[in-house]
Each structure stands twice: as C-alpha cells, then as structure tokens.
Amino acid sequence: MTSISLPSLADFRRIVVKVGSSLLVDSGAPKTGSRLRHAWLAALAEDIAELHARGADVLVVSSGAIALGRNVLGFAPGALKLEESQAAAAVGQIALARNWAEALSHHGIIAGQILVTLADTEERRRYLNARATTAKLLEMRAVPVINENDTVATTEIRYGDNDRLAARIATLAEADLLVLLSDVDGLYTAPPAKDPSAKPIAVIEAITPEIEAMAGGAASELSRGGMRTKIEAGKIATAAGSHMVIADGRVKNPLKAIAQGARCTWFLTPSNPVTARKKWIAGTLEPRGTIYIDAGAVRALRAGASLLPAGMQRLEGSFRRGDAVVIRDEAGHEIGRGLVGYDAEEAQRIAGQSSRAIEAILGHSGRAAVIHRDDLALVGGESGPAAK
I need a labelling partner for 184 at 20 to 30 A (CA). Which of 49, 198, 345, 386 fits? Predict the structure, then answer.
C-alpha cells in the first residue's frame, strides 16, 4: 500500500462533502443547549469557496436539523420520540439552511436546499427528478445543501444516517469524490478508543471482509452513524465510481487540511462515475420495453447524442418514466440501453415528431430527449465498435 500515490483534492471535478451533527452543532451544557458552531462553519465555507473558485462542483450533505430544532423547542436531553424528532427537524431545518446560505453567501456562492427521503434515491422516477434538480443547480454554479427530510421520514423509510445518504447523493450526482468529515481522522486497524495499539490506514484499494471487521460502533451522542456506516458508504461510493475519504472534521478548515496532507483514509475506486453508471444501466437493470429507431438516430447516438422523439419508429412494452429500455435499429439489432424520460403512452404519441412539437402534442413541456445521453449505455461502450 505504501507505493500507492494518494489522490489530491485538486484532481476532482465534483465533490460531495458530508458534515455530521457532532461537527456542526455544539451540544453544550444542559442550560445552553445545542448551538451551531458558526466559526467552524465559516472556515469550512472558505474551503468550499476555494474548491468552487477553481471550477469544481461542490455538494454538501449536512446533518444538524434535529439537533438545532430540539434546542429551540426545549426538548430535554436524551432520545426523542418519532413525532418529536419530526417537529425538531421542521424547526431546525430552517436554521440549518439559513446558516449554510449565509456562510456561502460571504463568498458570493448561492446555496440551494434539497430535502430527500430514502424513496427519492431508490425509486427511479423520483431519482431522476432529484438528479435533474441537482444538475441544474450545479449548472448554475450553486452549492446544493442536502439533508434527509426528517419531517416526513419514519423509521421504516429512512436512511437513518447521512453517511449512506451522502454516498447515494454522490452516485446520483456522478461525483468523483465523497468526503466524510467525521470526529475521527480515518479508519484504524481496530477501534482506537478500545485498542491503544490500533494503527491508522492511509489507503484502501478494496473493501474486504477484513476491512469491514475493523469498523466499530457509533462514536457520539449526536451522530447516528459510526465507522460501520462509513464503510457501507464506501461500498456504495466506490461501486459507483467515486473515491471516498474519511477525514477529521474537528479541525478548522478541514478540507484544506486534507489538501495539505493531514491524516485521513482514502478509499479508491477502479472505475469512474460515468463508466460505473453505464455499466449499471447496461447490465443491472431489467428492461421494461423496447424502442426501435431509424438509421439517422443510430448514427446520432453513436456520435454521442441523445435520443430525440424524431428518431423513434415504434415502441414495445409498458414502461414508465425512469425505467430501463432496450434500443434497437430497424433490423432489430440492439444498439444500447437507457433510462427513458417518458411513460410508454406519451412516448408513443411523440414518436417520429420534432422535439418542438412535444408541448402541443402532450399539453405540457416535456424533456427534449426521450433518453438523455447521460442515461444511455451503447453496446460495446462509447469507445467501442458501436461508437464508431
């Protein structure tokens, strides 16, 4: 492992930064309650602004709503009932979003709030909506600040920790780096609080059962996750083509500390977000239908274009927006697979038509592409025979 060169923050184009409650909120004494650590947040905003200024896209997955809200509502220390947690989140989310917006605005950066539930990243239709919103915010050079929607989530339909949520967001946004800021400075060979001889691990090339066995439990009162959830997040992120790093967030300017070589643990991926996503589309999802396209559309797809309504000849199957479909040429040869942007009934109505006619035909302004090129995997890959 010592011969492996560690990545640098400067190498990444899209970065998801996960911030836990124990970093952002000072639990304080019983009389003072939970308060936001304003100076720490301002320093992190400086780090984010530096990444943003060099052209990187930055997304933040931030905990802290319940911790802030419970103080405002005067809940006693200790575990909260479900409805109390939801009420605390409803109050705390306002404060959390306001403070993030103010911290980033000092650097001329606009913050956009996105609240998600487990279903938003598991169900494909809602996944595509969340992905489109995130992509537009990044295109406008805003920083999405994302949190689980604790006001509506229940025990049965929630992530329960923002480590795995952050990994799902990294997958959704096709980020190439996930940064988990934590109250530990990385993964050790054993939980260091229990084993003084535990040694830090600088880089992990693959998450093996041995690596998983090194994870301990939750480390703080405010945090829902521990090292075990971070390892699970690492599995999700690296499978989707994203590197991940666990680093100490307790220091001032924690991202700058990573860039300057502070102790942390890097989890490496053998892939990249685009390649991993294409493999997922091509080989994992069960197709729900087939779209036959003309020769002009075949040429356009192989040249890197999206599939437009004009290129569709006929359709088979009963699919819904977000489902995977097979794309075939006029002779029936498979050209590729993709996530379709329309239900079968609407796709049938606009087949062979210009994208400009979509609104007149459907009565609403839909997407110009039936399958966007980012949601398309060609047979043979984009650099293979099908792309030539």
Answer: 49
Instruction: Please give the structure tokens belonging to residue 140.
Output: 């406008």
- pTM, whole model, 2 decimals? 0.81
Q: List phi, psi (to 5°) of 361.
A: -75, -45
Q: What is the mean pLDDT of residues 7-11?
A: 91
**pLDDT beyond 60 at 197:** yes
What mean pLDDT do residues 176-204 have? 91
d(CA 311, CA 370): 10
Strands (E) across 56-129 are located at 57-62, 111-116
Residue 139 CB neighbour total at 10 angstroms: 9
Give mean pLDDT, residues 49-68: 95
Closest Cα to residue 175, out of 122, 244, 259?
Answer: 244
CA distance 211 to 176: 22
Beta bridge partners of 289: 317
Residue 192, pLDDT above cutoff 90: no
Residues 285/324, Cβ–Cβ less than 8 Å: yes
Reference 268, options 177, 201, 348, 362; nearest CA is 177
| Sequence letter at residue 293 | I
Phi and psi at residue 86, to the nearest 5°? -65, -40
| pLDDT tens sequence across 349-360 | 999 999 999 999
The residues that bridge with 264 in the sheet, in sequence order, are 247
Residues, the chain: 388
User: Mind giving me the DSSP string for 206-261?
Assistant: S--HHHHHT---B--SS-S-BHHHHHHHHHHHHHTT-EEEEEE-SSSSHHHHHHTT
| Cα Dmax for the chain | 75
Q: pLDDT tens across 256-270, in order?
A: 999 999 999 999 998
